Amino acid sequence: MDDIFEEGKKLPLIDEFYSLQGEGFHFGKAAYFIRIGGCDIGCHWCDTKYSWRADKDKLIDVDTLVKNVTSTKADTIVVTGGEPLTYELDYLTEEMYKANIQTFIETSGAYKLTGKWNWICLSPKKNAPPTNEIIPLANELKVIVIDESDFEWAEKYAALVNTNCKLYLQPEWSRRNFLTPKIVEYIKNDPKWNISIQAHKFMKIP
User: Fold this and answer.
1) Which residues, including other chains, have CB under 8 Å from residue 206's CB and lie 6 or more apart?
2) Left (φ > 0), alpha (ψ -120 to 50) or beta: where does 96 sit?
3) Model confidence over 80-132: pLDDT tens digits?
4) Which residue range forms the structural domain that includes residue 136?
5) What distances in angstroms separate CA 32 from CA 48, 67, 160, 161, one per listed residue?
6) Residue 50 maps to which CATH number?
7) Total structural domains in the chain?
8) Of the four listed, 7, 54, 177, 192, which is most buried by Cβ atoms within 10 Å?
9) Whole-model pTM?
């Protein structure tokens, strides 16, 4: 790996687009999405498996990314993956701050936190749990529910995050018809939780 890659001045970009946040606390907010390739966590239900492989032939200069963002009316980026914390993200967030762009990240938390973030959405995965460093820093805990055993998993992390962290349960998309009623009933019995629905898929936007 060359120095410029290690310094985070280039990243393996899978996709970038300006759209609306479709899930979680910032639902409905306009944001520029930056999807970084590479993930070795391998959730079998993942809906972006195309992002698992980091194609180093598609490295993009972070300076170009900043220009792409600032060419729109976006005032916020959402960095997602793959697993974005596979990479050094300090340079990316520093340059976005210089451009007065807010920085949000969606991560499993399985790797060391780099970058300076206005909002951290932690989505813990059983096969690669989050580090102790990131858990208390999370602004939002979003647990993907695949089956009813995931409610216990969600409670484990709800007890570990800070008291201001927003708590969300989100049905895995392919099982949403089965799981949504169960999540609704669960939240009615424990209203510290909120439901997150992938509304962008219903709206058929990126």
Assistant:
1) 15, 17, 19, 33, 200
2) alpha
3) 988 999 999 999 999 999 999 999 999 999 999 999 999 999 999 998 999 99
4) 3-203
5) 17, 12, 30, 27
6) 3.20.20.70
7) 1
8) 54
9) 0.91
